[in-house]
Structure formats: C-alpha cells, structure tokens
Amino acid sequence: MFELRGSIVPLVTPLTHQREVDYPALEKLLAWHNDASTQGLIILGSTGEGNLLTEEERAEVIDFVINASNHTMPVWVGVNDTNPDRVLKLIHQAADLGAEGVMVPSPMYVKPSQAGIISYFTHLADASPIGLMMYNVPSRTGSTIDIETACILSHHEQIIGIKDCQISVDGMAQYQNAAHHFEVYCGNDRDMLVCLENGGAGVISVIGNLLPELVRALYELSVLGVHHKSAALDSRWQQLIGALERMSNPAAIKWAMSERGIISPYTRLPLSPLNFEEEAVMTEALEDLAPLWTFNPDYDVS
C-alpha cells in the first residue's frame, strides 16, 4: 500500500483522432510522471473522461496504467454513477485490477440530503474492498458534502479522506478539529496553498498534467514552510488557472497539452474542441510559462 500524499495528478485520458484510447501516448505520460516525481495518479475521473468510456474500456485503461506505471506510485480510480449498485460494480472492477482505491463524488442530479449522503457513502464503504475517497464537487454534481457530514463519515475505516473543491481556512480548521484519521486533498487548483498550509495532505491538480515537476515543487516548498517561495511559484500559473476555469475540463487542459506536443487535444462527446476565442485566451495564459515546459515529444519509454 502506498501513502496518498503530495502532488497527485487527475490524469487525462489521451485519445486518437478516432476518439479511441491512445495507449502509446498514455505510456509516454506515465513515464513522464514517474520521472517528474508525481506522487500519485487518479485515473478515469472527470479530467480523465471516465464516465464517457465504456465499462470494458475502463477495465483496459485501469489494467494498462497499473502495469505500465510498474507500481511506482499509487493509482486510484474515479467512479461516478447515481445508482449505488453500479458504483459498487465499478469499485470492485477497480479493486480486482489492482487499484489502491477509488474516488467517488456525491450522487449527481438527484440532490440527496446530508442524511442521504451519509447513508450512500456508508453503504459503499461497507462493501468496498479498497480505500474510498469522497469527492466534493458541487459544480458538477449539484450537491454538497458538508464538512460536518464528511467528519461523520471519516470514522468509517474504509473512507480515507476527501477531495474538496470548496477549500477555505475555516473549513480546513473544521476538518482538523473533527475528522478522524482523515486526509483532505485540494480539488481546486486556485486553493492549493490554502489547503497545504492548513493541514492538507496533497493537491489533486489539473495543471499537474502540464507542469508536474512544478506542482511537486509547490508541495515540497509548502511542507518545508518556505511559503514566500511557494506563493511566488503559485502566482506564475494563476492566469492559466483562470483560463481553465472559464472552459470545459478536460478540453482546455488537453488543448494546452497538445500545444506542447504531449498528447492530442481530442475529447469525446458531449465535450467539444475549444473555439478560436478560447484558444486565444489559452495561448496568452501559456506564454509566461513557456520556459517551464519539460516534456519531450520523443519521450523514451524503453
């Protein structure tokens, strides 16, 4: 078992022009993240277009990533469905293929009460053979996992923590004071420093797909308490974060990666390519980061 801590990347799923999974590109990504000292991967989440792949495709991707990464870092799997039985089926699929754990958002669309969210996650955790991370992302699900609810659920031995997209100083204090053996991970790139400087275990950063070494450096600087340097580094990518927030994920980050020769920009429906105006915004946001690129399109995976 790996400790899930530090710079954790919600990995994109590279696709070919025919919108099939691009396994050679995925292999290069994994080699790059290994050399960049990325400390964990979450695959098939929203950034990985996990709910746009079939169950069979998901199995193939999970198996490929776990084997190609050669067990050098923890691999967690995003699982998203409204029906608990289907969620459990995907949890067991991930467990059978060797994943360390699963990340599960609150059920989307149905807008459950906090009591319903507690029952839902308890039901999943009782039946899960691997660790479960809750995911609080109201902008996508239409429901919020309240901090009090998360702290109640933290007492379940299979629930290891939460990826929270609503990080605040006061919220982090509530987590630290009430949660039980429970880790908090930043789910919003704009709030990485708030999370890390107030007891967070790590960041699950979309821009880690583009700048993995620097997101790892930000984490290490924060751990060391060198806050003026971590703040200076964090300021470098705020324009990019702002641009990404205005566009669909992962279409925007995939476009940025394609500009650097890392992967193709293709996504699956209903996601669509960036328009010319969006490309112009992204181009401007990327200009100041040009000296920081490290990926070589001819990356050696041998």
From TrEMBL:
User: Is Lipid biosynthesis there in the keyword field?
Assistant: no
State where the protein is found: Cytoplasm
Record keywords: Cytoplasm included? yes
Query: Where, by residue number, is the active site?
Result: Y135, K163
What gene is this protein translated from? dapA
A GO term for molecular function: 4-hydroxy-tetrahydrodipicolinate synthase activity
Q: What is its main location?
A: cytoplasm
Q: Which Pfam families match?
A: DHDPS
Under the heading InterPro entries, the entry gives: Aldolase_TIM (IPR013785), DapA (IPR005263), DapA-like (IPR002220), Schiff_base-form_aldolases_AS (IPR020625), Schiff_base-form_aldolases_CS (IPR020624)
Known partners and oligomeric status? Homotetramer; dimer of dimers.
Give the record's keywords alphabetically.
Amino-acid biosynthesis, Cytoplasm, Diaminopimelate biosynthesis, Lyase, Lysine biosynthesis, Schiff base
- The organism's superkingdom is given as Bacteria
Which residues are involved in binding pyruvate? T47, I204
Q: Which Enzyme Commission number(s) are on file for it?
A: 4.3.3.7
Q: Which reaction is catalysed here?
A: L-aspartate 4-semialdehyde + pyruvate = (2S,4S)-4-hydroxy-2,3,4,5-tetrahydrodipicolinate + H2O + H(+)
Similarity field = Belongs to the DapA family.
- Name-wise, this protein is 4-hydroxy-tetrahydrodipicolinate synthase
> What is the recorded function of this protein according to its Swiss-Prot or TrEMBL entry?
Catalyzes the condensation of (S)-aspartate-beta-semialdehyde [(S)-ASA] and pyruvate to 4-hydroxy-tetrahydrodipicolinate (HTPA).
- The site feature described as Part of a proton relay during catalysis is recorded at S46, Y109
* Biological or metabolic pathway of the protein: Amino-acid biosynthesis; L-lysine biosynthesis via DAP pathway; (S)-tetrahydrodipicolinate from L-aspartate: step 3/4
